[in-house]
Design brief:
Four Helix Bundle (Hemerythrin (Met), subunit A); 64% helix; 0% strand
Length: 232
C-alpha cells in the first residue's frame, strides 16, 4: 500500500509563497522602480519556473515534493550540508536583495541590451536544466543524504547522461547571469560566493555518493564530468 502524502500546513504554504514570490520581487520592492522591466523579467522567470517545475515533478514524483518539503528535518543529512544547503538559500536571497539596493541607492551603468537578453535566456536555460533534472530524478532532495527509506539508486537518464550533477550546473549558469540582467555589479560578490559553494557542495556530494551509494562509482566512470562536459 502506497504511503499517503500529508498536505502541507497553511504556515508552510505561506512561508513557501513568501520565498517563491517575495524573493524574486525583491529588486522591485527594494528599489521602488516599478518600471524596471529587467527586474520584472527576472521575477517572472523565477516564479513561473518554480511553479511549472513543481507541477511537472508533482505529476511524476509526488513523493519527491514531500521529501523536499521536509529536507531540513532529515536526521541523516550529511553534516557539512546542514551548512552548505542553507548557505546557498541565503545567498539566493542576497543576490536579488543586493541588486535592489544598488538600484535604489546608486546609478548603476546599464549593460547593453544584447547582454541582458542573452542573460535572460541563460537564466531560463539554467533553471530549465534544474527542472529537467528534478523531473527525472525522484531522489532530488533539498539536502544531501542517502535516501534508503525511499529506495535510493543511481539515476543515469535525461541530463544525467551528460553530467553527474545537472541541478548544480543549472544553478551555476543562472546565478552567473542574474547580475548582468539586473545591471548589478555589486551582486557579483554574492554570486561568486554562491558559485564557490556550488563547486564545494558538488565535490562533497559526489564523494559521498561514490562512498555510500551502490553503483555510483561505476556511473562516475561512464559519466566523467560533474558540472560541465569537457571541463569538470
Amino acid at each position: 500500500m502506497a504511503k499517503q502524502i500529508k498536505p502541507a500546513s497553511p504556515i508552510k504554504i505561506i512561508v513557501l509563497l513568501v520565498f517563491v514570490v517575495g524573493v524574486p520581487l525583491l529588486p522591485l520592492i527594494i528599489s521602488g522602480q516599478w518600471d524596471w522591466w529587467e527586474a520584472w523579467v527576472f521575477a517572472a522567470i523565477c516564479i513561473l519556473g518554480f511553479f511549472s517545475s513543481r507541477l511537472i515533478t508533482g505529476r511524476r514524483h509526488p513523493d519527491l515534493l514531500a521529501e523536499r518539503g521536509k529536507s531540513f528535518q532529515s536526521s541523516n543529512a550529511e553534516t557539512w550540508d546542514k551548512f552548505l544547503s542553507p548557505g546557498l538559500m541565503i545567498l539566493g536571497i542576497i543576490i536579488p536583495l543586493t541588486a535592489g539596493l544598488e538600484m535604489r541607492f546608486t546609478s548603476p551603468v546599464p549593460f547593453p541590451q544584447t547582454i541582458k537578453i542573452v542573460s535572460a535566456l541563460i537564466i531560463i536555460f539554467g533553471y530549465g536544466i534544474g527542472a529537467y533534472a528534478m523531473a527525472i530524478n525522484r531522489y532530488f532532495s533539498g539536502v544531501v543524504r542517502i535516501q534508503k527509506d525511499r529506495g535510493h539508486e543511481v539515476v543515469n537518464k535525461g541530463p544525467y547522461r551528460w553530467v553527474r550533477h545537472p541541478g548544480y550546473s543549472g544553478s551555476f549558469l543562472a546565478n552567473l547571469a542574474i547580475p548582468l540582467l539586473l545591471d548589478s555589479s555589486w551582486a557579483l560578490i554574492p554570486v561568486l560566493l554562491s558559485l564557490i559553494v556550488i563547486i564545494i557542495r558538488t565535490s562533497l556530494e559526489d564523494q559521498t555518493l561514490q562512498e555510500k551509494l551502490p553503483g555510483y562509482r561505476e556511473y562516475a566512470q561512464e559519466v566523467p564530468y560533474r558540472l560541465f562536459p569537457g571541463v569538470w
